[in-house]
Amino acid sequence: MEEGREARASLRLRTVLRHLVSSRPAGLAGAAALTHFPTSAQIATAKYPVHFRYTLDNDLLSPEQRHFYEENGYLVIKNLVSDEDIERFRDEFEKICRKEVSVVGLTIMRDVAIAKSEFLQDQKAVTKIQDFKADEELFRYCTLPQIVKYVECFTGPNIMAMHTMLINKPPDPGKKTSRHPLHQDLHYFPFRPADRIVCAWTAMEKIDRRNGCLVVLPGTHKGTLKQHDYPDWEGGVNKMYHGVRDYDKSNPRVHLAMEKGDTVFFHPLLIHGSGMNKTDGFRKAISCHYASSDCHYIDVKGTSQENIEKEVTEIAKSKYGIDSPITLKDAWVLRAHLVKGERINL
Ligand SMILES: O=C(O)CCC(=O)C(=O)O
Hints:
- It comes from Phrynocephalus forsythii.
- Belongs to the PhyH family.
- This is Phytanoyl-CoA dioxygenase, peroxisomal.
- Helix content is 30%, strand content 20%.
- It is built from ten helices and 16 strands.
- The longest helix has 21 residues, at 2-22.
- It is globular and about 50 Å long.
- Mean pLDDT is 83; it is low at 1-45.
- It binds 2-oxoglutaric acid.
- 2-oxoglutaric acid is lined by residues 165, 167, 169, 180, 185, 214, 272, 274, 285.
C-alpha cells in the first residue's frame, strides 16, 4: 500500500520534471534547469523588495534608483536640464520681475523683511513666482521630455502639472527670513493618492549649504500628513511658508548640494525645507508638482488642511478677479494643466 503510493508519487514527480525540462531551452537539464530560476523564498530574501509602492514599473529607473526612492522618498538625477534652457528660464523670470512681461494667473511672492524695508521694482524682494502655466517660456520646463519621462515613473502616463514655481531665494536680509521651514508639500494639495504625486525641482545654479540648499528627512514619505502652522520666527515668516509642527527630531537630515541642471524628484509627504542664503547672490530653482490625472479631489473640511484652504482661496479670488466664494478644488482646477495623456479627474 505504502509502496504503491510512493511509486505513484515518484511517477508524478518524474512527469512534472519532464514537463518543466522540455519547456526550457535545449541544453538545460533536470535539476540544473529547475534551480536556475529563483524560488519565492529566494526572491523574498533578494536585495530589493518585489513589492514597490512609490514607483511604477518602468524601463528608466535602475533597480538601485527605484529602491532608493522607495526607501528615502527622493531621487537626484544629475545634469538633467541644459545650461541653455536654464538661461532662458532665468531671462524670462527677470523680464517678469522688470514687468516687461505680464502673465495671467501668476502670483509674485516677496520676502517679508525685504519688502518691508524698501520698495523694489526688480527681483530683489521676490522670493518666488507661482503658477506660471500661462507663460509659454517657463512652462516649457514642465514639458521637458527628460523631466516628464522620470515623472511618469511616479505618476503613470496621464500627467497633470499642478503647481509651478520659480524660487528666487534672496540674500538673507539678516532676519533669517530666507529660510523655508520644514514641511510636507501634501499639506497644500487637496488631491490624492499622495503616491501618484511627485515634485521635480531643478537647481538653476550651484546650490549648497551656503546659499540655502534643500534639506530632506529621508524616509519621512512613509509617514502621514502632519499638522502645519506658521512657525514662530522672530524675524517674521513669508506668506504661505507653513512649517510642520511635530516630527521626529532624531530623523537624520540630508543637505542636497546640487550642480546647475541637477534635478531632484520627491514625494509630497517627504519632510523638507531649505536653509538661509548666506551669500550675496540669488539662489534660483525651478520646480513643478505633477500628479496623475487619475487622482481625485478631497474635501479638506475638518482636516489639518483647513487652515491652508482659507489662504489659498482668498489668493485665488483676487488673482482671477472672482467675487463669489470659491472652493479649494476650484482653485486647483484653475491652476492644473495637462502635460501628457488624458485629463481624467483633476
Ligand atoms: O526651494 C526652496 O528653497 C524650497 C522650496 C519648497 O520647498 C517649497 O516651495 O515648497
